[in-house]
Amino acid sequence: MAKLTLARARELLQKHVAEKHLLLHALAVSAAMGAMAELFHEDRDHWEAVGYLHDVDFEKYPGEHLGHVHELLSGEGVDDADIRAILSHGYGHCGDVEPQVNLEKSLFTVDELTGIVMAAALMRPGGISDLEVKSVMKKFKDKRFAAKCDRDLILNGCERLSLPLETVVERVIEGMRRYMDELGLGPKAEA
Ligand SMILES: [Fe+2]
């Protein structure tokens, strides 16, 4: 089976997701996964593809999230390891597939962390272009900031990865910066 590419993942997600905020979230997680792949010397395009598809069934089946990933993707040439990786990001809240390999552990961790980074970048005139790790760390500690992002889950993910939170934050910023224009996180034009 051909390896899943980001280009193919974009085609596939279009069939199942139309809401703009979900597409932006898909792109943010994809971008972050690309930078995690680089950290582990893995295939960046492939990790970005898996990240891009991770919430593929959420718009159509919000109450049964991850229950329909298999039926949406297995007929499309997406291999079982990639489907397993997608399922494992819901470990502990929507499913019992435990993240085992670095691809899975990374997805589990960055899914929530991208929300904090996105919110932090949106508040700044420079967007994500000059966002620093220490400023995200401060926001991480402020539980009221992007309150929906589950800090305990992120820390649990870092533990699984055996990486300090700072390292993962740095990767997420770096990955998302590469796609800042598409994410709407570039520097704001001066009025
Ligand atoms: Fe997600």
Number of helices: 10
Tally of separate domains: 1
Query: pLDDT below 50 for ≥5 consecutive residues: which ranges?
Result: none
Structural class: mainly alpha
How far from one another are the termini? 51 Å
Name the average pLDDT.
Answer: 96
How much of the sequence is in beta strands? under 5%
What is the subunit arrangement here? Answer: single chain
From the 3D structure, determine the CATH topology: Hypothetical protein af1432
Highest-level CATH class: Mainly Alpha
For the report, how would you describe the main beta sheet?
none
Number of beta strands: 0
Please give the radius of gyration in angstroms: 16 Å
The backbone outline, from C-alpha atoms, is globular
Identify every distinct bound molecule in the structure, by name, code or SMILES.
fe (ii) ion
- Share in helix: 55-70%
Order of helices and strands: HHHHHHHHHH
Could you describe the 3D structure shown?
- The longest helix has 21 residues, at 102-122.
- 60% of the residues lie in helices and 0% in strands.
- It has one domain: Hypothetical protein af1432, CATH 1.10.3210.
- It has 191 residues and is mainly α.
- The protein contains 10 helices and no strands.
- The structure holds fe (ii) ion.
- Fe (ii) ion (FE2) binds at residues 25, 29, 54-55, 111.
- Fe (ii) ion (FE2) binds next to helix 2.
